[in-house]
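Lab notebook, page 48
Experiment: co-folding of the full assembly
Goal: obtain a model of how the components sit together before planning crosslinking
Operator: M.T.
Materials (sequences as entered):
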Amino acid sequence: MRKPLLTKDEKKAIPFVLPGVLVTALLIVYPLVYIFVMSFSENGVGQSGFAGFTNYIRLFHNPQFTRAVSNTLIWTGYTVVISFFLGFAMALLIHMKGIRLKGIWRSLLFIAWIIPGVVKATAWKWLFTTDGGMVNHLLMSLKLISGPVPWLTSPAWAKTALIIVQIWATAPYVMLMMTAGLQQLPADLYESADLDGANGFDKMLHITLPMLKDVSFICLLMLLVWAINEFALIWTMTSGGQNTTTLSLLIYNQFKVLNLNFASASAVMQLCVSMIFAVLYTRLVLKEEKQ
Amino acid sequence: MNAQMVKRRIRLVLIYAVLVLLVLLTLLPLGWIVSTSLKPSTEVFANPPYWIPKQITFSNYTNVFTGSSIPIAFLNSLIIALLCSVMALVLGSMAGYAFARFQFRGKGFLSLFMLLSQMLPLTVLMIPLYYMENRVGLVDTKFGMAAAHLVIALPLVTWMSKGYFKGIPREIEEAAMVDGCSTFQNLMFIVVPLLRPALAATGIYAFISSWNEYALANVLTRSEASRTVPLALNDFSTFFKVNWGDTMAAAVVITLPIIVVFLSVQKQFVEGLASGAVKG
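Observation: model returned without errors.
Model output:
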């Protein structure tokens, strides 16, 4: 007997899946192919011939691109590492024995997360004003700085300011994920460790950290992808001035001046980098889902 | 024994102190938004700045509601986010249902793709989406903006609803099948009503993503026909000067709806985050 073209399940599934798949193909797959083709064309899509890797070679010789890459690396490195440890520390504090109202603390610390990105960025731009800004005023009254710091108007400080805001915005996510992870740890493991005379450090190193391995990686990968892709925050606060242009901003700027070869080749580079971490993330999430 | 109790008490007090400090650091920027929004312009620019307005005024809010593009942008955002979340809910929950219930070729790849799409850099999609929408005249229209936001909302709803559908026992549907329900009737009349709160939360999640989105809106909207609130927040600044009082009042106006809807679905939202549904 011949195998039917479609199984019974497939016949049922098609009407449900097809509309969503078509829309996804149109809005996500086609644009990705489009930008890919564009990055290998001589002058935008459809207008002229195949350019091979010319656009990419030019890209790597362009100081704007290399500067954007190095800015992205610095920004990503600092925000991911600090945000992770700060968020984890917050989760550990809330989880401590004897702390009451854990849910309230968690919600209070999580609020920053939900605010629209542009509102966060605009509020911080106002807080970081050099003369009469609240941050400078607070730091000066605490005698931590002697005069106003030009947070957003000097290359020396602008990156620091942006990194602080990104940490403020993303650490709550880590806190939330880690508190969820900590709650799932089996209490009896700690009880038997206590019987064996383990101290707090031992328990941390041999029970807590290994058990939180997966959720930690999920957080780290998420932070990485967000940092690489961030646009609104940097665009609102510095517009890429003071040497804060990351890949996202470079792509946007080059698109605005219709330098499409440059923009599309940079975009493909950004896509490749963020998708490496995204694929690792997906594998972890799918593994968690199976368990 | 007593000394140990004292030590424990001190440790607890220290932890609470650190927690309070962290909460202050989280909330002070938000407090500063509200404080500035309630100050008359003479007080906004006072140097050194202070937290409590000497004279509370609502004139910044009056400016925002009567003399700015915020009300129109608010309406635009509302329509766009609603349109986007309804489209995403219909298309996404159908796909999510099939992912949860049926075996078909390409299923593994497709669900992987849905998860991955949530992490696509929008700056990569923005250029092709602009040219595509430009060709069919959808740039600077509400529908065009809502459709572009499906890029975020559709994978998100598909992925989240797939998880919810998996949690519904098959037996319920099989019983309905025996009674002569089609698969579609099953979904509409048996499964969806059971999952109403979860699906509502998913829709709200999609709504929030669209409401907050900035990069695509920056490229795909031009005029008051479609401009959304995150962009309109910029209206109070010129190259030389920013009217911070009005800006902060506008910030409150566009954030409040989000906080209200978020509080209504906080629980499902948190579970969604943990299950891998993310906002890019």
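Interpretation: Chain A touches chain B through 92 residues (CB under 8 Å).
Next step: discuss with group before ordering constructs.
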